[in-house]
């Protein structure tokens, strides 16, 4: 039987025509893409969003278009009809007819919008403009995407005026200052030796502000104590105000460690401090407790400052520990020896007061309990907030009689003295903390000091009768 050659070639011709059609269609598609396909709009991100700009204002401009890639980007600052160019780049995007290939999907420009970087910048309104051009086609231009962010330029720091007088402060001790700050201030208070003591509205003071502050125990002069005010643009004004400073160098103390003491305190503290590693040596474990854990515990105490209520919670003088004999005073600089060899140095930031065993420990004044639990080297501890950043610490307690969140009255029993934590015998470790910084307790126990240094400046805002 013989096949018809014409009938057998017909399917081949159909396949050939189909293939030709597909090739022509693909070519036309590529031509159409190349002639008409512009890139999608680039995405522009400015971080952080500029709102208020001063001497320096770092921002980052990021432009992204991952499909065909970026074509051209310009960054400008305009103010008062003048334009300041801050950045420009031109890139080769992927041709419209290609679906893959080399391109630039993202471009980042870090820049400074501040006066230090743009000398012609003046106070007033200005605009950051980012122009990102879409990838073009043969017959269509890439239309530009324009993103603008308006911001205000402020180059003058807030005004600052000290209203109180006779600021006499002792090294490690506290004081108060009353002042007035100008419009635009977002952060004001006292800086002292790297510490910051925030200001508060003076109750009934008609726009006046005040700050309770201290000269840190390890700062031997007052030149670094300044009243400061800063606005949102980073403009800062500072002024000195301390009238007289009384140095009070730390007293030197030596402590001889023995195995009995180490065996008593080290295993118990280590068991309650999972963040520490057992080094397999009693002395090495003590040293990491005395150094690393001490610093961690002090950070915890400093962090409590954010919980302090912006009000005076106390009305009466502060009570000392009844019958307490001073065993160690504030800011003693201790040198530790083991078997005649110096092994460590630490500052003791409180008073060690001894009475009878398991003596009742009263609250120094009215306040709110912000900590009542075991705290590393301090053992069982209670911290009471007295308002405006002032807190009192009671440590080494054998038992606790209050819970966190409770309001306690002056003289109310918080617990009983003991020897928990890093204590060799039954006693109370007591400290006052001002914005987390330990300060000299003896001042706050002194009714005359409270009247002269605080009440005289704060007036009716401080409900203290003496």
What does this structure look like?
With 466 residues, this protein is an alpha+beta fold. It has 3 domains: 43-153, Immunoglobulin-like (Sandwich); 160-246, Immunoglobulin-like, CATH 2.60.40; 252-439, Distorted Sandwich (Glucose Permease (Domain IIA)). It is built from 5 helices and 32 strands. The chain has helices spanning 5-36, 259-271, 282-303, 441-444, 447-458; strands at residues 43-47, 52-53, 58-64, 72-79, 82-90, 106-112, 124-133, 144-153, 160-162, 168-170, 174-181, 185-192, 195-198, 200-201, 209-214, 225-231, 236-239, 244-246, 252-257, 325-328, 332-338, 341-348, 351-354, 360-362, 367-374, 380-387, 390-397, 399-400, 407-408, 413-416, 428-434, 437-439. Strands 20, 23, 25, 26, 27, 29, 31 and 32 form an 8-stranded antiparallel β-sheet that branches. A hairpin with a 7-residue loop joins β14 (200-201) and β15 (209-214). α2 packs across α3. The chain is elongated and about 120 Å long.
Low-confidence stretches: 32-36
- Provide the CATH top-level class of the largest domain: Mainly Beta
Structural domain count: 3
Mean pLDDT: 91
In terms of DSSP E residues, the strand content is 35-45%
The largest sheet, given as strand count, sense and whether it forms a barrel, is:
8 strands, antiparallel
Which geometry do the CA atoms define? elongated
Count of helical segments?
Answer: 5
């Amino acid at each position: 039987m013989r096949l018809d050659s014409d009938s057998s070639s017909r399917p081949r011709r159909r396949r050939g025509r189909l293939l030709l059609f597909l090739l022509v269609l693909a070519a036309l598609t590529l031509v159409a893409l190349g002639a008409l396909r512009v890139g999608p709009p680039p995405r522009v991100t400015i971080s952080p969003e500029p709102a208020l700009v001063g001497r320096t204002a770092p921002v980052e401009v990021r432009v992204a278009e991952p499909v065909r890639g970026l074509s051209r980007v310009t960054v400008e600052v305009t103010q008062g009809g003048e334009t300041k160019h801050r950045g420009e780049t031109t890139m080769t995007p992927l041709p419209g007819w290609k679906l893959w290939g080399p391109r630039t999907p993202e471009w980042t420009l870090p820049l400074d919008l501040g006066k230090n970087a743009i000398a012609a910048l003046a106070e007033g309104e200005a605009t950051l403009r980012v122009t990102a051009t879409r990838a073009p086609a043969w017959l269509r231009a890439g239309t530009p995407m324009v993103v603008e962010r308006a911001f205000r330029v402020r180059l003058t720091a807030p005004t600052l005026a000290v209203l109180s007088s006779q600021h006499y402060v002792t090294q490690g001790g506290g004081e108060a200052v009353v002042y007035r700050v100008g419009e635009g201030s977002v952060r004001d208070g006292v800086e002292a030796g790297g510490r910051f003591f925030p200001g508060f509205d003076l109750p009934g003071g008609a726009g006046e502000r005040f700050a309770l502050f201290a000269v840190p125990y390890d700062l031997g002069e007052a030149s670094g104590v300044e009243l400061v005010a800063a606005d949102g643009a980073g403009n800062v004004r500072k002024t000195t105000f301390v009238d007289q400073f009384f140095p009070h160098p730390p007293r030197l103390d030596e402590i001889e460690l023995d195995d009995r003491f180490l065996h008593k305190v080290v295993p118990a503290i280590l068991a309650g401090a999972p963040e520490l590693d057992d080094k397999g040596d009693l002395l090495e474990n003590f040293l990491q407790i005395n150094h690393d854990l001490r610093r961690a515990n002090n950070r915890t105490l400093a962090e409590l400052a954010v919980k302090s209520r912006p009000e005076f919670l106390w009305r009466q003088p502060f009570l000392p520990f009844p019958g307490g004999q001073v065993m160690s005073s504030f800011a003693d600089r201790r040198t530790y020896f083991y078997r005649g060899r110096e092994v460590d140095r630490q500052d003791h930031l409180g008073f060690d007061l001894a009475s009878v065993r398991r003596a009742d420990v009263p609250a120094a004044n009215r306040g709110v309990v912000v900590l009542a639990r075991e705290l590393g080297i301090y053992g069982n501890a209670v911290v009471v907030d007295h308002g405006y950043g002032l807190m009192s610490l009671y440590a080494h307690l054998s038992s606790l009689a209050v819970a966190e969140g409770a309001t306690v009255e002056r003289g109310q029993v918080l617990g009983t003295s003991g020897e928990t934590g890093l204590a060799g015998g039954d006693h109370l470790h007591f400290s006052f903390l001002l914005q987390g910084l330990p300060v000299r307790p003896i001042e706050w126990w002194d009714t005359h000091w409270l009247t002269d240094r605080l009440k005289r400046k704060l007036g009716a805002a401080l409900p203290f009768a003496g």
